[in-house]
Design brief:
This protein is of the alpha+beta class. The protein folds into 2 domains: 240 residues, Aminohydrolase, N-terminal nucleophile (Ntn) domain (Glutamine Phosphoribosylpyrophosphate, subunit 1, domain 1); 172 residues, 3-Layer(aba) Sandwich (Rossmann fold). 32% of the residues lie in helices and 25% in strands. The strands form 6 sheets. Strands 3-2-4-1-10-9-11 form a 7-stranded antiparallel sheet. A 6-stranded antiparallel sheet has the order 5-6-7-8-12-13, with helices on one face. It has a 4-stranded parallel sheet with strand order 17-20-21-22, sandwiched between helices. A hairpin with a 2-residue loop joins strand 12 and strand 13. The protein is globular, with a radius of gyration of 22 Å.
């Protein structure tokens, strides 16, 4: 774990006429690729006939022209790009999930993590349910399907299922006749919808994906809200709204989301500029140039530069043809990619006092390598500034920080970490100033549990996110 792992991106489109909705889903997933690079999938609905394709790999690699042609046309489609925080990197764990039941079909795409998935899964298994994946997304699909047997509609089933689902989930669900979006009662993960000039409805994790699909954003879904799109238009179900304090993951602003996205009415780009400005005020330093680690550290670096008056310079060049380092499973693979992912610009940093801005430190290995790159390029001093507070606690809502064991800040002081990564000084953004990254922070409410330890929900009884794989391995060994 060289950097924080994010979760997934979900997408859906509903059209009043049959057309190439697979292409729309492709564009949406391409815009959400930063949220997950392990696997991706699309399901197209043509008058109740579902055609799907999913596989491991990037959107552009998985959805070849031949695959897109085979998906055909329809009036609805949903898509998903995945980084697995529960469930191994396996084609079986790719989404969307398809379910055939006595009342029809359902496809589901999920972003987030349940905190009660282990308990729900055990209960379902004892009742005879057979699981084909190791994800909590399949648990959600089972709960909805069980409710659908007695419910009068798919949205009623989802509404009842939400009584049992605890934790983070932004869902896009497709039935033969409806597209449905739902957000958990806390609103941990973002979800918004928009409308195209032709009247098509589009749902996505981020507004940047709406724009890629040619849709103008209408609004974010409320925490706990269910939105239904069908031949009658759109309608909202708010039975679960207002039951909990909103708790959007603040790391969406710091790292996860694209800078051009707007979440809960606040610009991600502006939030990162503020983070850099606050860093300059909290941890001033005498230096010659400010350098941001591409891509998520650049906006904060610009903010630091503007506030401090220290010139901003391009000191690191990113290879655009390689994914984020943490996407590749296995530490050795990540180490190899770090070496080819970034190149220093010697003319910017040689004989200079450099302020290096990054978004986070998890284990510290990536930061150490980047600092060494700049040292080798001739930097005289390197002052590391982090646009987030130290990670001190596990996250149970959709990021892959599942224990304190690998968190460097849990075992070392700030001064010790600076020495470990090879920096002359180190400064983190304070938790207090995280609360000032957006104008509406106090009104909207955000989750900062990974920094503060203040969890909006009960924590899982069995927090090990690899428990399902371990259970399967034990069973295979016993057999």
């Amino acid at each position: 774990m060289s950097n924080i792992h994010e979760e997934c991106g979900v997408f859906g489109v509903y059209s009043s006429s049959t057309r190439n909705v697979a292409a729309t889903a492709y564009y949406g997933l391409f815009a959400l690729q930063h949220r997950g690079q392990e696997s991706c999938g699309i399901v197209v609905n043509d008058d109740g006939v579902f055609t799907s394709f999913k596989d491991t790999g990037l959107v552009n690699d998985v959805f070849t022209p031949e695959v897109m042609e085979n998906l055909g046309e329809g009036n609805m489609a949903i898509g998903h790009c995945r980084y697995g925080t529960t469930g191994s990197t396996d084609r079986n764990n790719a989404q969307p999930l398809l379910v055939n039941h006595i009342k029809g079909k359902m496809a589901l795409a999920h972003n987030g993590n349940l905190v009660n998935s282990a308990e729900l899964r055990e209960e379902l298994e004892l009742q005879g349910s057979i699981f084909h994946t190791t994800t909590d997304s399949e648990v959600i699909s089972y709960i909805i399907t069980k409710e659908r047997i007695s419910a009068g509609s798919i949205e009623e089933a989802l509404n009842k299922a939400m009584d049992r689902l605890k934790g983070a989930y932004s869902l896009v669900v497709m039935s033969p006749t409806k597209l449905i979006a739902a957000r958990d009662e806390h609103g941990f993960r973002p979800l918004c919808y928009g409308k195209t000039a032709d009247g098509d409805f589009v749902v996505a994790s981020e507004s940047s994906a709406l724009a890629a699909a040619g849709a103008a954003m209408e609004r974010d879904l409320l925490p706990g809200e269910i939105m239904v799109f069908d031949k009658n238009g759109e309608r909202s179900i708010t039975d679960h709204c207002g039951k909990c304090n909103p708790s959007l993951c603040v790391f969406e602003y710091i790292y996860f989301a694209r800078p051009d996205s707007v979440i809960e009415g606040s610009s991600v780009h502006n939030a990162r500029l503020r983070a850099g400005a606050f860093l300059a005020l909290e941890h001033p330093v005498q230096a010659d140039v400010v350098v941001g680690v591409p891509d998520s550290g650049i906006d904060a670096a610009i903010g630091f530069s503007r506030q401090s008056g220290i010139p901003y310079g391009i000191g690191l060049i990113k290879n655009r043809y390689i994914g984020r380092t943490f996407i590749s499973p296995g530490q050795k693979s990540r180490e190899d990619k770090v070496r080819i992912k970034l190149n220093p610009v010697a003319s910017t940093v040689k004989d200079k006092r450099v302020v290096l801005i990054d978004d986070s430190i998890v284990r510290g290995t990536t930061c150490a390598r980047i600092v060494k790159l700049l040292r080798d390029a001739g930097a005289k001093e390197i002052h590391l500034r982090i646009s987030a507070p130290p990670f001190l606690n596990p996250c149970y809502y959709g990021t892959d920080i599942d224990s304190r064991e690998n968190l460097i800040a849990c075992h070392h002081s700030v001064e010790e970490i600076a020495k470990i990564v090879g920096a002359d000084s180190l400064g983190y953004l304070s938790v207090e100033n995280v609360g000032k990254l957006t104008d509406n922070f106090s009104q909207k409410g955000y989750c900062t549990a990974c920094f503060s330890g203040l969890y909006p929900t009960e924590v899982p009884l069995k927090p090990n996110k690899n428990r399902f794989e371990q259970k399967i391995s034990e069973r295979r060994y016993a057999e």
